[in-house]
Design goal:
- By secondary structure, the chain is mainly β.
- It has two domains: 254 residues, 3 Solenoid (Pectate Lyase C-like), CATH 2.160.20; 50 residues, no CATH class.
- The chain contains five helices and 34 strands.
- The strands form five sheets. The chain has a 19-stranded parallel beta sheet that branches. A six-stranded parallel beta sheet has the order 6-9-13-17-22-27, with no helix packed on it.
- The longest helix is centred in the last third of the chain and has 11 residues.
- It starts with 10 loop residues before the first strand and ends with a helix.
- 53% of the residues are buried.
């Protein structure tokens, strides 16, 4: 790892060993220098895989991490039978930011304690980050991106399939959310597209929310043995947000507006709710199966211009608008 860990000269992470070495200083400034192949972690630590940063000692990350739009691929966590957290961080502290980072093909097997691709809890800011992969757990709570949020999550998404159904006692624990399980903070301009299954309660985007959710959506199949919501299972703190009633298998949610798949793939559904297309959001048939995507975050996301319900060429539209004026 190069650098000195300051704002002016951050540590540069070049490989998965450098990523694990962040454990040695959870107060420093870090940047990724390139994409990182973390597939070797499947054989680390006698099968435990990557050790959650700060998780084995319960120490929050109080530094800063900028992924510089690079991705970490193949992180593996296996804490089955251990009272440990699974995910990149134990906790992102208030005042800390993790941004511009992708965790692709995350593989988490968790038990006892909480799990999420980016970790247990965000008290700070998660921005322009995403995760893809699988979580199979027997835990109290799991979220696709992160288990709990009391800070800010902005312009992030999860395509992690969350299965928190193995074992457990009926009515106790086993809750799950496609993006976050428990939210008491702010979730803005985000989406979840993974499936969610829980022994307890489940939500396509969030299981339980006492915070705010604005301009978000979910599409994944949702099942909860004790209860399920297409977007949110409990906590109607949601504005201008939607879920796909067909792909989720859920006709109800404690927040948000249910739409058909066709409506979810039509930009005016979102534009009429004040979503910023062309600056934050995009939509094109070549990305995200035609659902809305996040510009500068979702790979291959682009903006196909709409006029009413008709897709038209952007240059023709711009010329027509100039003529109209």
């Amino acid at each position: 790892m190069t650098g000195s860990g300051t704002l002016a000269d951050p540590y540069i992470i070049w490989d998965v060993n450098d990523l694990q070495a962040m454990e040695n200083d959870l107060t420093a400034y870090y940047e990724l220098g390139q994409d990182i192949d973390a597939s070797a972690t499947v054989g680390w630590n006698a099968g435990l895989g990557f050790l959650t940063l700060g998780g084995w000692a319960g120490i929050p990350f109080t530094g800063q991490l900028d992924g510089k739009w690079h991705k970490v691929t193949g992180l593996y966590f296996n804490v089955l039978g251990f009272p440990r957290y699974a995910g990149l961080f134990y906790e992102i502290s208030a005042g800390s930011t993790v941004q511009n980072l992708s965790l692709e093909d995350v593989n988490i097997a968790g038990s006892s304690n909480s799990c999420g691709a980016f970790g247990k809890k965000n008290d700070g800011t998660l921005e322009k980050c995403y995760a893809t992969g699988e979580i199979v757990a027997d835990t109290a709570e799991c979220g696709g991106l992160i288990q709990e949020n009391s800070g800010i999550i902005r312009k992030c998404y999860s395509e992690v399939n969350v299965d928190n159904y193995a074992g457990g006692v009926h009515g106790h624990g086993g809750d799950a959310g496609g993006l976050v399980c428990d939210n008491s903070g702010d979730i803005i301009d985000c989406y979840a597209r993974g499936s969610v299954r829980a022994y307890g309660y489940a939500g396509g985007l969030v299981n339980m929310s006492s915070g705010t959710i604005s301009k978000c959506y979910s599409t994944g199949a949702v099942f909860g043995d004790d209860g399920a919501g297409g977007l949110v299972e409990s906590g109607n703190t949601t504005t201008n947000s939607f879920w796909d009633t067909e792909t989720s298998g859920q006709a109800a949610s404690d927040g948000g507006t249910g739409k058909t798949t066709a409506e979810m793939k039509t930009a005016p559904t979102f534009i009429s709710a004040g979503w910023s297309f062309g600056t934050i959001w995009g939509m094109t048939s070549a990305c995200n199966d035609g659902y809305a995507c996040l510009l500068d975050v979702t790979p291959s996301c682009a903006y196909t211009l709409w006029k009413g319900n008709i897709v038209i060429d952007q240059l023709i539209y711009q010329h027509a608008e100039r003529m109209r004026r």
